[in-house]
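Hey team,

Filing this mostly as a record. A colleague (T.K.) asked me to run one chain through the structure pipeline before their review meeting, and I want the input and output archived in the tracker in case anyone asks later how it was produced. No errors, nothing strange. Just documentation.

Input sequence:
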Amino acid sequence: MTHSWVSGWKRYGVLGCLCASAACTVRDPVALINTEDGGGGPVASSDSGPKPTPDDLEAFCASTGPLLLVGDSVTGAQVCSGHLAERAFRFALCTCERLSLSATMTTDAFRSTQGLYIPGGEGGSVATNGGVSANDLLRVGGGLSAGGPDGISLGSGLTVGGGLYSGGPLIGNVSAQVTGDAWVRGDVGVASLTVEGKLAVPAGRVMSGAVTASEVRREPVDSVAPCACDEGARLDIRGLIENHARDNHNAAVGLDASTLEDFRGERTLELPCGRFFLTRVEGQGRLNLVVRERTALFVRDSITVGERLSVEVVPPGELDLFIGGDVTVAGQFLLGSPEAPARVRVYSAGTGALVISAGSVLAGNVYAPGAALNLSGNTEVFGSVFVRQIESSGGLALHYDEDVLSLGRACAGEK
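Output structure:
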């Protein structure tokens, strides 16, 4: 059963590309934009780039698997979106700066292609290039890696379903349990530590409390930075957007690149299969983006929505959304569906704050290594998050869809 985050809303029109399978032909796709007064239809096209040949769009829509994008503006070489996703979303949560948690955080994992989410699945690793400070229960279904020299400071219990790495001390008057191996680069100062695998601690570092491990090794522990946060290691989001400002399918489906500038009221943009480009998205009303096919959308500047933003991806559709600036949503942000988070991948080059208000839904994968994610109240995320830092006023639960790690296997046809 397909879950729709826009069920209950008034729907306007139908997607122009409704095929019996995922394949579309050139005469089928059309972009539709609809307004709350019932008006709408194909979007008037402007010159947003060279018009693709019929064979180009037909081949794109008829193929399967992750999307092929233009990654090299000089040679036209292609890059597969599946490989981008595998690089960006290796962890349920990755932060470039210190991870500070005032309330409970839990992670687990599932595979959406094998069925609906069931709580408690193994997996859902957490990593940070800084330290970890947790005042409440921290339960990680996969591994936990804290690369910063301040290490891991605990105010309540810790349970790790995989391996543990601490770039500094592991401290707190609490109990910690690790299913895999553990590497601690500083002192060990917890009430009790149980490691089912091996424990490595440098010689000269103090180990206090009750420590149990299959083997304790006094050996050097290397410094690591588990999240690829350096400028040279980040995905070139703005470069991909620039390439697709010139090489896109806008003209073939009648999409004007400026159609969502300064919109008002409620707007619904339904995109068919293809690669599309918009200059910016800005309006004081409500925006619904609907995708049912294999779609990539490139937004040159920021996304600013005054009331509510919904991004609905209906299986077998999938969306790669690239944003050159910040994402600002004053009201609810409804992203994807918990039934298939791996089908939604959002890449933002913004450096501001992404504020998620109460009642929002995050069911996709968000890559914004320069941005701060601000969560209001208790939050449940289906998918993964890679940000500069995260601020949460309540509990945080992350349910990692491991299907995002296998997208690269379907990258047939990459050149």
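Quick notes for T.K.: The CA atoms of residues 130 and 148 lie 4 Å apart. Residues 51-89+228-411 form one domain.
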